[in-house]
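Bench notes, bay 3.
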Amino acid sequence: MSSTADLTPTDPITDVEAKQLRNDFPILEQQVNGHPLVYLDSGATSQKPMCVLEDEQDFYEQHNAAVHRGAHTLAAEATELFENARATVARFVGVGADEVVWTSNATEGINLVAYAIGNASAGRGGAAAERFRLREGDEILVTEGEHHANLVPWQELTARTGATLRHIPIEDDGSIDLGRAAELISPRTRLLAVTHISNVTGVINPIEELVALAHASGALVLLDACQSAPHRPLDLRALDVDFAVFSGHKMLAPTGVGVLYGRAELLDALPPFLTGGSMITTVTLEASEYLPAPQRFEAGTQRVSQAIALASAVGYLEAVGMDRIDAWEAELGQRLVRGFEAIDGVRILGPSAGVPRAGLVSVDVDGVHAHDVGQYLDSLGIAVRVGHHCAQPLHRRFGVTASTRASAYLYNTTEDIDAVVAAMGEVRDYFGAK
């Protein structure tokens, strides 16, 4: 992390420093279609700094062994690195190490909770799991703005249990209707599943208010933190959520590793999702007894190198400073909005300039399909996301089937933002849109 060594955590990031940070990311040095790469798709997956790549390689070169399974030196070293990584990530989000479950990604984390609740509803887990049992008349509540990963598992769970799935509407600017939320959250609500930051609009949802409403009615809260954990300080204990998920690949770490947070008492009461080796205490031919959390949810061989690399990514982010990253991306996000708003025929999905948002913006270009927009930008070396971003209901709410999303991260500069704005201004003329 040579480029971060001289930075003071309280100083705001500048363009000069952002350019220094870029030097830590080898992939950003390349050209695409004869142009310097402008990578504005970190909302989908982030790039990786050298220190993360090197730490994962070092594990395989020096320490590779199965964790929790051997008494030899390499196994002990691998286990220590693996559990130290858990402690690092737990501290990063303000929780205990025993409250962090390794998953493959956030989607698996949400499915883990949904299937565990389903198992409890089927009578598994005994008296301790009774609090999770769903019956007809019970409700799970989501919002109209959820990623499919925080919608489809709840559709499946309610279909299996007879509970009802309801949703909180989204306003024209992408915000949650808190008044409607207060009406929908009731004693029938067993779980509220909500995203912290929309991956389409960049809206930062009022989690504290939603948690207070849910807990007042006795409901649990699951937070999708995929677009917040990589970009801003996150204290899950202070937010008072019961479960939360996020993915490593969106926060400078490799693919294949994610995190499920759950309150310790809730994780210990939930019946397991995946079963097999490493999550048991006693096994007979007739029955098994399970370890306490988090190990009871970590069956089989774990994603050891990826977890270690995620801890390395956390170290990198902390060295830069999460407050500084948050402030820089907010500035870049506002620059994106102002630039796009000034282009005729480009419609912002979500809040307008001046409203707090994350550093991502999705747009609909009049007369040009999002895929065509993306191909034109790519011809200029600009990488963005196109499609429905795994949020079809939200796009339907805005009256479109797809959009073009630019999403910034700590390694982006104002030059990157100005490049995509300038290119977006050329799109309609290029395709002859009227």
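Next record in the batch:
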Amino acid sequence: MTPQPAPAQTAAVNSLGFAKPPAETRVVVAMSGGVDSSVVAASLKTEGYDVVGVTLQLYDHGAALAKKGACCAGQDIHDARRVAQRMGFPHYVLDYENRFRESVIDDFADAYLAGATPVPCIRCNERVKFRDLLETARDLDADCMATGHYIRRRDGAQRAELHMAADSARDQSYFLFSTTQEQLDFLRFPLGHLESKAETRALAAQYGLAVADKPDSQDICFVPNGDYAAVIEKLRPGAADPGEIVDQDGQVLGRHRGVIHYTIGQRRGLGIGGLGDPLYVLRLDPERRQVVVGPKSALATTIVPVSEVNWLGDQPLEGEVSCMVRIRSTRPPRAALLRPLGGGRAEVELLEAEEGVSPGQACVFYESGGTRVLGGGWISLRRRRAA
């Protein structure tokens, strides 16, 4: 009897989803110098992966060195390098300053000048980290790229899926809605399953990382002390031209010091007190240099137009879809109906009115009763449905 060959052994799938040993799996880790991405890099190296750390230089270090809370300052590059040295993997710093200025900073300034309230961190993920850096990772023959974002990637029945983080207080799905399916196939988020930031810091201490107690960054990296207007004035001289504060009927109530100093829903700092009920910023009109104010009730809206829609559902976005949406990063998802309009546009109807819906912010879609991110879009000019 002729002996039969032994059945081929199927390679075990590693923690990153590849059917090969960790040592044969190259992963590029996007390292900001903070505790989150440092723990990702250290943990993957400890598991035996072929780790390559990459940190992006996104803006001038002369300004950055004086600002410890920013995500890509000179000190942060130094911190990322120290983690790589301690754990024993290569680390590279890439000069993306021109790309960042063109793709993120200029867009930020122009959006504010147009009366919108932009979210530059989303644009940075979309146009720099998950586009240009991801291509660099491919050039380095990486099997995948890992980041320190708090969000989960799961292998679904049909495709890789994006899900909210286990820790709702740290969930960053709002800032990652524009991740494309192709990018999601290549990305990994090792921290998404952790229940708290304390677990991340405990891991950093376990690995002996100097960044274990490093504070989280609070501001947009290129906006010192949260002073958006000062940055925009520097980028676009003359942007802070004064103008009129008017009510919904166009009646002049006062003067303002520049449209860029105001946001939708703002109440304080208008300088027009003593007019009865509190007034809120309802709309910004940069062409007329007007800030339109009115009662809080006028902020309520149920119809939210969105553009540049990115859809991550299993089926094409066709017809009306019941879902949950989040219109600000600090607000919980709310029930809504999503209607595609073609050309990357859609209309979202909120089942309960929301206040302070602002052009330039993101509107992120989630599955009803679940954690899956279905995509999202950018809020365009607000329309209010009459009661």
